[in-house]
Amino acid sequence: MAPSATEPLPIASHIKDYVIQKKDTLPLPLAARNRLEAAGIDLSNGYPERPAKPLFLDDAISIRNEDRPHIDTGARADKSKSALLGAAKEVIHLTKNIGTEIVGLQLKDLTDQQKDELALLIAERSVVFFRDQDITPQQQKALGEHFGEVEIHPQVPHVPGVPGVTIIWPALMAQERKASFRQPGGASRWHTDLVHEKHPAGITHLHNDTVPSIGGDTLWASGYGAYSKLSPDFRKIIDGKYAIYTSAHTYLDRNNPNAGPKHIERIHPIVRVHPATGWKSLFVNRAMTKQIVGLDKAESDVILNYLYHVYESNVDIQVRFKWTPRTSALWDNRITMHNASWDYEGSEPRHGTRVTSLAEKPYFDPDAPTRRQALGLDDD
């Protein structure tokens, strides 16, 4: 039985990592609280702040249902990226195909030119990491606004007073759906963020101020690499095809509330082109790609399940990252999917803040090269 509002919540054995915020809320990890208070975040009314969740499907769809222009900041960057890379103490490529760590730079201090070059680096390397970051939620949002329109989620809790900076706090999520070793759920499956949007997610920036001492890694897989794993003849089968993409959250049909919960659905190409690199990428994920348009479900399932398998099973197009406190990861949802390992099983606190910048409406160009073709690598 859940404790009442007058009863104290149970405290974990690692109490030294926590401070009690209010007796009717979860204990907030100490590092998270220190960061939020130093940023001037008002925690007096509880944490986090929750949006007014729309109940009906048409209300949720109407939140962002207009075509809008998007200028990709990476597309206007200096291809050498000398302003960004020249200022770094070290640039570490974590694998050949995906993942780069930048040492010696603070994200909050980047110039506009360096931000543009960072967007291009993310477009080329899929995910870029910065450790030992001193960044407030407000500064995190400002950086996201440089990359595009910051998504304000109608369902997910956010930092008080800073809508658009959502909370990644597994202990909070467990209040709504308890995770287990067999069924960790949530972000612990391969997925891509916000594919149901008319203009889906571009760059996402997750800053983790609190992480487990062991475990809790995040994995990313390259859509560029997944596409190149397909034979040239198979690529011809899926090039130009579209699929239905669904939201993670569900809503009621206003005209038929008894019909049960429904997802937002959008139609996008299953192979898309990144505007900054011009490279083709496979744009599907097992969690939220529903069906290829024009195919019977059985036919679609055969193709999609094969594409998921290619994306998920080839370790040479993946990177696994071990977090340390105060680390930021910035990845491009247009060309990746990711998976958060829950192997620490909630035994230690984890907390972070996330900002996602929306990008262009997905498009396909049959004349675009693959990443390997553009780099002069074998692609047959």
Q: Could you please describe the fold and organization of this structure?
A:
The chain has one domain: Clavaminate synthase-like (Double-stranded beta-helix, 4-Layer Sandwich). It is 22% helix and 22% strand. The chain contains 10 helices and 17 strands. The strands form 5 sheets. The protein has a 7-stranded mixed beta sheet.
Any chance you could write out the topology, listing elements then pairs?
Elements: E1 18-19, E2 28-29, H1 30-38, H2 57-62, H3 82-85, E3 90-93, E4 100-103, H4 112-125, E5 127-130, H5 137-147, E6 166-168, H6 170-176, E7 201-210, E8 218-222, H7 223-228, H8 232-238, E9 242-251, E10 262-269, E11 271-273, E12 280-282, E13 289-292, H9 297-313, E14 318-321, E15 327-332, E16 336-340, E17 351-358, H10 371-374
Parallel strand pairs: 4-5
Antiparallel strand pairs: 1-2, 3-4, 5-15, 6-17, 7-15, 7-17, 8-14, 8-16, 9-10, 9-13, 11-12
- Topology as a string of helices (H) and strands (E): EEHHHEEHEHEHEEHHEEEEEHEEEEH
Shape: globular
Reported CATH architecture: 4-Layer Sandwich
- Biggest sheet strand order reads 3-4-5-15-7-17-6
Q: What do we call the CATH homologous superfamily? A: Clavaminate synthase-like
The total domain count is 1
Q: Mean of the pLDDT scores?
A: 90
